[in-house]
Amino acid sequence: MKTLSSTWFAEGYIDFELKKYTLLAYLQEIHKHFDQQKLYPQLADVIMHYNNLLSFKHNKQFLQQQFPKKLAEPDLQKIEMLYQSIIDDDDLMKELEEIIGFAAERMNSTIRNGAEIYEFVEDNLNIFPVGLIPLETSEGYFFLSDGKVRNTLVYQYSLSIFEKHDEKYRSMRTEFIAGWERNFVNTYENIKSELIRNRTVLPNPAVYGIETELRFPIEETLLPIAKRRLVKYLSAA
User: Which residue, 207, 210, 208, 236, is CA-closest to 222?
Assistant: First the structure.
C-alpha cells in the first residue's frame, strides 16, 4: 500500500500542487481497497493522517503529544525545528494551511466512505452464545462464518483493559486455532466440545458464534470488525 509519513504535508518542498497530487495518489489507492471491501489497515491509516492534520492545525505542540512513544528524541527535535521554521515564515504557513484544508476535506470524505462500509458489515453480523456462558468472559473462543465459505474459522480471544488519557479502553487479542468444515457433524456445540477436550488451557471457555449471510474479505474486513463488534457485545453484557 502506498503510504504517507506522519508529517508528509510539512516535509520537503511545501507546494500546494505537489502535495495535492501526493495526497490524491495515496487516496486513490485507498479507494481501490475500499472498492474491494477491504478496510484494514487502510481505514485506520487514513484516520491517523486525518487526526494528524487537525492536531497540527489546532495545536502547535501536537507532535510531542501525538508521538511521545513512537519517536526518538532526535526525531522530536527535528520536527520541532521543522515546525518553528514554518511558523516563522508567513508565506510557508499560508501554503501549509491551504494544503491542510484541502487534505482534511478529501480525507474526511474517504473516511466517511470507509465508515459506510464498516457500518454495513457490522449491521450484517449476528453474535450469539454457544452453549452456556461462564461468568468470566474475558477469555474464550469465537466461531466466524460467512455466507459463502464452507468453513467455520475458530479463534481464541483474550480481552484486556488499558488506560489512555485517564480513560479506560478494551482491546482484544486473537489467535487463529483452526478451520472446521461446516456440516451436520461439525455443529458449533460439537466444535466447542472438541476445543474443551483438546485444549485444556481453557477448561470452561466462553464461546460465541459470529455469522453473516454475506461474504467479505476475512483478514482485511470481516475479522477486525467482528473483533470490535464482539468487544462491544461483551462490554454490554
Answer: 210
Cis peptide before 224 (omega within 30 of 0): no
Written as one string, the DSSP assignment of 149-190 is -SEEEEEEEEEEEEEETTEEEEEEEEEEEEEEE-SSSS-HHH
**What is the 8-class DSSP label of residue 218?**
I
Q: What is the pLDDT of residues 18-32, one digit of tens each?
A: 999 999 999 999 999
3-state helix, strand, coil split of the chain in percent (to 5) is: 50, 20, 30
Q: Is the pTM of this model over 0.85?
A: no
pLDDT score for 81: 57
Q: Is it the case that residue 234 has pLDDT exceeding 70?
A: yes
pLDDT tens across 139-156, in order? 999 999 987 667 899 999
One-letter identity of residue 25:
A
Backbone angles phi, psi at 113, to 5 degrees: -60, -45
Phi, psi of 29 (to 5 degrees): -70, -35
Q: Which residues contact 112 (CB under 8 A, 6 or more apart)?
A: none
What does the domain layout of the chain look like in residue ranges? 8-123, 126-236
Q: What is the DSSP letter of 130?
A: -
- CA 231 to CA 122: how far, in whole Å? 12
| Distance from C-alpha of 15 to C-alpha of 140, rounded to nearest angstrom | 52
**Burial status of residue 28 (CB atoms within 10 A of its CB: 0-12, 13-18, 19 or more):** exposed
Topology (CATH) of 126-236:
hypothetical protein tt1805 (3.40.1530)
Within the chain, how many helices (H) and strands (E) appear? 7, 5
